[in-house]
Amino acid sequence: MQFKQAAQTEIEKNVHNAMTKLAADKTINIKLADLHVTKVKTIAVPNHKTACVIYVPCNEIATFKQDEHLVAALEKQIVGHQVHIVADRKIEHRTPKGYRAFCKTSVDVHANLLEDLVAPAYIAGKRIQYSAGQKLNKFLVAKVRKAEVENRVAVCSKVYEALTGIKNQIDFM
């Protein structure tokens, strides 16, 4: 496992050590030595575990999602943190005459970020509720993987709000 930057923070060192231990283990089915991590961010969530968001390159996110036990194994190694692996996507701002790909818009980046946060499950629907001048996004997660994701939903909602600034609520459909 390789980091894109040379200087590492304490949590990045913990993630690096956990990934090298898992790479030596034969329980994980993917080769972690060839993969990269761009950055690691911690987000404090009140009344819950601290969230550890691991950013990986967009072209490697599918490889990280191949083994569903990777996140659980990382949470065992990094004690006290709930681990989320997301792709490091950038929002391109609109230029007056330039073309902008849809994958670079804020709508697509935010939708893909939410898909990465609720990783084994998937978003089945989206509703927007307007009340008293405020906007609340309600995301509906499919009940197929409710048992696996149910205890992570509250932290996912707070992480999404911290990263995007969008007030939201995640429910099961």
UniProtKB/TrEMBL annotation:
PANTHER family referenced in this protein's UniProt entry, alphabetically: 40S RIBOSOMAL PROTEIN S7, SMALL RIBOSOMAL SUBUNIT PROTEIN ES7
Pfam families to which the protein is assigned, alphabetical: Ribosomal_S7e
Molecular function terms from GO: structural constituent of ribosome
Ubl conjugation recorded as keyword: no
InterPro entries: Ribosomal_eS7
UniProt protein name: 40S ribosomal protein S7
Keyword terms of this UniProt record: Ribonucleoprotein, Ribosomal protein
GO BP term, pick one: translation
UniProt superkingdom: Eukaryota
Organism from which the protein derives: Hexamita inflata
GO cellular component assignments: 90S preribosome; cytosolic small ribosomal subunit; small-subunit processome
Family, as annotated: Belongs to the eukaryotic ribosomal protein eS7 family.
